[in-house]
Design goal:
With 191 residues, the chain is of the alpha/beta class. It has 8 helices and 7 strands; from the N terminus they run αβαβαααββββαααβ. α1 packs across α2 and α4 crosses α7.
Length: 191
């Protein structure tokens, strides 16, 4: 599976010949996006990985808890910051510099730099949303059965059952209304 995806990415990179090849790796939480991105990065060599989790939007817990699924889709992930700090600079031929979300403090924390050139994989839920689609040369959607994803999220032990239900409702809204699998260049079965 990853060989096929890696070859598609390399074809796209060769077609560009200069600049940075931007690839979105999207799918539901627990689908295997991070694992796929790490495997591809090892295969491709000259490749950076930007994690969507670094673009979680800081906000008070009480405010986050009041969001309905549509509002969660629109506000959990700070896609504007991803566009401004990573995608626009790389598309313009410049290095990117972005501030990561610090999960321990609930605030923005350390700065990361992504060099221009080569391949940059941007992995995470919501990374292929329509507002970002034009930045990417290729989009990959990891399609994994819902129950498998939920089992993985529960097994991680990072979030309460209530939060997983709330998060998944926002993801379901995103998947249903924006149809990232239908818009993707490649759809792969999650492991």
């Amino acid at each position: 599976m990853t060989t096929h995806i890696g070859e598609a990415i390399l074809r796209q990179a060769r077609a560009r010949s200069t600049g940075t090849t931007l690839v979105a790796v999207d799918g539901a939480g627990g689908s295997g996006k991070s694992t796929l991105a790490a495997t591809l990065a090892r295969q491709l060599g000259d490749c950076a990985v930007v994690h969507g989790d670094d673009f979680y939007r800081p906000m008070p817990d009480a405010e986050r808890e009041r969001l309905n699924p549509e509002q969660g889709y629109r506000r959990y992930f700070d896609w504007e910051r991803l566009a401004d700090q990573v995608l626009r600079p790389l598309r313009a031929g410049e290095a990117a510099r972005y501030q990561k979300y610090d999960w321990a403090t609930g605030r923005l924390g350390a700065w990361e730099t992504v060099a221009r050139g080569g391949v940059v994989l941007v992995e995470g839920v919501y990374t292929a949303r329509p507002e970002l689609a034009d930045f990417y040369d290729l989009t990959v959607f990891v399609d994994t059965p819902r129950e498998t994803c939920l089992d993985r999220l529960r097994a991680r032990g990072e979030n309460s059952a209530e939060w997983i239900t709330r998060w998944r409702a926002a993801e379901d809204h995103y998947l249903r209304t924006t149809r990232p699998a239908e818009r993707a260049t490649l759809v792969v079965a999650g492991a």
